[in-house]
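**User:** Here is a favour to ask of a fellow structure person. Please take any protein you like and set down a full record of it. No explanation is needed for now; the record alone will do.

**Assistant:**
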Amino acid sequence: MVGDFRALNTYTIPDRYPIPRIHEKLTPLSQDKFITDIDALKGFHQNVLTDNAKKLLRIIVHFGIFEYLRMPFGMKNAPSHYQSMINTIFPEELSEGWLSIYIDDIIICSETWDSHL
């Protein structure tokens, strides 16, 4: 079951947390010899919703009312919220430069195999 949040998104105040530009994340990788890309499978769905958010994201159909318990796709602020959350988890690694994150793609890069491990 999928929710259509277009109407809700028109009333949503945009989250101003910056999502990096993809070329700013990929260009520095050209200098590294070893790159690992990890896709955070169902990353958005790891975010538990508040009770207020659950009420706003209800899906009403002829056989019942359904409520999301986790952040679904299609919400206006989902990408910026997820980027903020993941950056908060890895601040030290991001500042060291060997870790790069673009929403749910986590990239580990290094110049040598030993440092990569």
